[in-house]
Write a structure and sequence with these properties.
The protein is mostly helical. α8 packs across α9. It is globular.
Length: about 425
């Protein structure tokens, strides 16, 4: 059976630049075959591995467990990361010898009917900075990875829900995705306007019923609501900073705190101490008294109130960055269905829309920690890398209480307020 065609982002570049960030953040579980391959590499005889240090660790409490992961160094880095920031397996045996999880990152592959949509994780700084070769020019290399990821008898799952009550087939679902992407493709339009238009458009989709709207009628409907949205929110709209509601502010801070955490192996290994620290931090994020808890060493102590002041207009470089970020996530279906906790399209986009104020809130924290009241592009780049580490990969974002928080923010219209409040 031939492998499904790939949908590749045409606006994104990437090649690895050996920053080693991924080797310091993730726990890499391996298959039985990968375990056997690594054991045959005889790392116990390699002088670069400290004597007595295992390279593999058994997972689970059951003595019959067959789950294993790569071991970590004392600072949380992968045992195979060397002093130059390179992978020892890759250097000695070539890239195909590495675990598949390491070969896949930062790509993400999602079902799109008879095709596979390719997205990227912006937790990788090279993805954020758009460094390297165009992704659509690397189809051959990506295909080799996809063929390892997909089951040999791969069968596309049914299309995910459009809403909690509406489901279209794959062809029509992809039409809806394409219509959403067009908002971020528009040139000479401020990013905030693009994002606010997209939310207003998704709200119309949420309110509609699609029993008889299929095929050409769906094309006409999507064009109609797109035109209505652009008329409602013109490109020259003057945006004012409107504070979110008190409850909306609390819910957003708890959400932003989740994105600002650094859930590495080193952090999670602290056990109950880590959990108690996070509980106390949650209380402070609720009541916003004093300084923001330092959720990771990167952040410096600043007061909650500082981040509520205006930090000025979004830097022009960041306008392009956010447009690219949203287009890659939308084209790659990286916000709903199998890619995002099986959440429907509309609800998933509200989660994705909240990434903007969350990233901007973290960027303000970085800037304020250095004594600045304006943002530099580097602040936003780093904040995006921090926040996107969790997007679609931290189980908490798919839990009922977190989904309820996002639904409440959408119903109260606080998502739009948060975008204008932290976006300027």
């Amino acid at each position: 059976m031939s492998s499904p065609p790939l949908i590749l982002p045409t606006i994104q570049n990437w090649n690895c630049h050996n920053c080693a960030g991924c080797c310091k953040q993730h726990e890499i579980e391996i298959t039985v075959e990968e375990k056997e391959r690594i054991e045959k590499q005889r790392w116990e005889e390699d002088e670069s591995i400290p004597a007595g240090q295992p390279v593999l660790v058994k997972m689970g409490l059951s003595p019959t467990s067959k789950r294993y992961r790569l071991a970590h160094q004392s600072d949380g880095s992968c045992i195979f990361l060397n002093e130059q920031g390179l992978c020892r397996i890759h250097a000695k045996f070539g890239e195909p010898a590495k675990p598949l999880a390491c070969q896949v990152y930062p790509y993400a592959f999602h079902p799109a009917g008879n095709e596979i949509a390719v997205s990227l994780r912006f937790s990788c700084p090279s993805v954020v900075s758009n460094l390297g070769k165009r992704v659509d020019q690397q189809a051959g290399e990506i295909r080799k990875i996809v063929d390892q990821v997909l089951p040999k008898r791969y069968k596309a799952p049914p299309a995910p829900g459009l809403t909690s009550k509406e489901t279209l087939g794959w062809p029509d679902t992809l039409k809806v995705v394409g219509a959403l992407d067009q908002f971020f493709e528009a040139k000479d339009t401020r990013f905030l306007v693009k994002l606010l238009r997209s939310i207003a458009w998704v709200e119309l989709v949420e309110q509609s019923r699609f029993e008889t709207i299929r095929g050409q009628r769906l094309d006409e409907f999507l064009e109609l609501i797109s035109q209505a949205t652009e008329q409602e929110i013109p490109g020259d709209l003057e945006l004012s900073r409107t504070a979110p509601s008190r409850l909306g502010g609390i819910q957003f801070r708890l959400l932003a705190a989740q994105y600002a955490r650094k859930d590495t192996f080193a952090a999670s290994s602290r056990g109950l101490t880590r959990r108690f620290s996070l509980l106390m931090s949650a209380l402070k994020f609720t009541f916003t008294q004093g300084e923001i808890p330092r959720l990771q060493d990167r952040f410096k102590s600043v007061s909650f109130s500082v981040l509520e002041e205006s930090f000025g207009e979004l830097p022009p470089e960041c306008e392009k960055l956010f447009a690219r970020y949203y287009r890659v996530k939308i084209q790659g279906l990286h916000f709903f269905g199998a890619a995002y906790y099986e959440i429907p399209f509309v609800e998933g986009f509200y989660h994705l829309a909240l990434m903007f104020p969350a990233i901007m809130w973290i960027a303000r924290w970085i800037a304020a920690g250095e004594g600045r009241s304006t943002l530099l592009p580097e602040d936003v780049n780093e904040a995006m890398s921090i926040a996107d580490h969790h997007h679609g990969y931290s189980p908490v974002f798919g839990l009922p209480h977190f989904r309820s928080r996002v639904r409440n923010l959408s119903r109260s219209q606080d998502i739009k307020k948060l975008i204008s409040w932290y976006g300027q």
